[in-house]
Write a structure and sequence with these properties.
- This protein is of the alpha/beta class.
- The protein has a single domain, classed as Ribonucleoside hydrolase-like (Inosine-uridine Nucleoside N-ribohydrolase, Chain A).
- The chain has 13 helices and 14 strands.
- It has an eight-stranded mixed β-sheet. Strands 7-8 form a two-stranded antiparallel sheet.
- α1 packs parallel to α12.
- The chain binds beta-D-ribofuranose (BDR) and calcium ion (CA).
- Calcium ion binds next to α1.
Length: 326
Amino acid sequence: MIRLVLDCDPGTDDAFAIMLAALHPATELMAVSTVNGNVALPHTTENALRVLDHIGAQVPVFAGADRPLVRADLPIPRDVLNADNPKFQVAELALPPSRTPVQDVPAVRMLIDTFLDPANADVALVAIGPLTNVALALEQEPRLAERIPRLVLMGGAHVGGNVTSTAEFNLWADPEAARAVFTAGLREIVVLPLDATHSAPLTWADCDAFADLGTPAGEAAAMFLRHRIAQDQTPDGLKAEPSAPVHDPLCVAYLIRPDVITSGGAFPVTVETTGELTLGQLIVDTRPWSKAPVTATVAFSAAVEVFREVLMEAFAHDLGTGPTPP
Ligand code: BDR
Ligand code: CA
């Protein structure tokens, strides 16, 4: 059984990751922590609770940082950031309001207690939002760098960006936190950047396949994916068919099926925190002769067939009735 803690900012793709981790037979989702990111913290927390209640999973949710490590807010205000596509990030996921309350322990405390506990030496940390909670936990308890066996994160882009031409949202939203995490001396960091997630987009056919499962997770996944495809801003001419990347669950899929990653390598990796045009850029030093220490493994491409298979395996499960027969 692969045990994990998920640090997230739901977000429809975070919702996919929560459902995958909570429902796949190979994973045990021990806790969810939330962070300011796609939407403000009260909404990311409510959304995480909604998703878990919707699928009937009993996983504790802990609220974390409501702003970046050193900045008052995102590098540019959210309404300015989303001005060209205001419908993409909805504050509240279209699921019934949560019934389960958030835990009264702060997320950073939960992360420290979980990873200091020797009984949790096998537990992976999966971070799919801005890295504020992870950076705060490492700052307050530096021994975590040795205790977290592996950190798998969605963030950055080796080539290009999404929020700016050079930066991806999760690293850009709190670049100082991201830099702190990459320089903390963690035992293993695996980065799934846009290069990998964009190489495995899901399609309308996947919406139908999820809906046909007839489970709460399948129906929610179909709804979220339809929204993502409808709002995707990639010009049609650049896509073989209507599709959208679903970034965050690729991290969980990687834990279950490492072969979902089809290329990548181990490199010196850091994050730009001061550049005028490059704030939040993931810097991957691919020079073979580089003398800088290797700090992370970076994925460059992914296999959509494997990704799809893992998602279908998980979303077929209805915790009320067990797995739905094919
Ligand atoms: C990442 O940013 C967020 O908008 C998504 O949830 C994902 O974690 C993609 O850049
Ligand atoms: Ca996210």
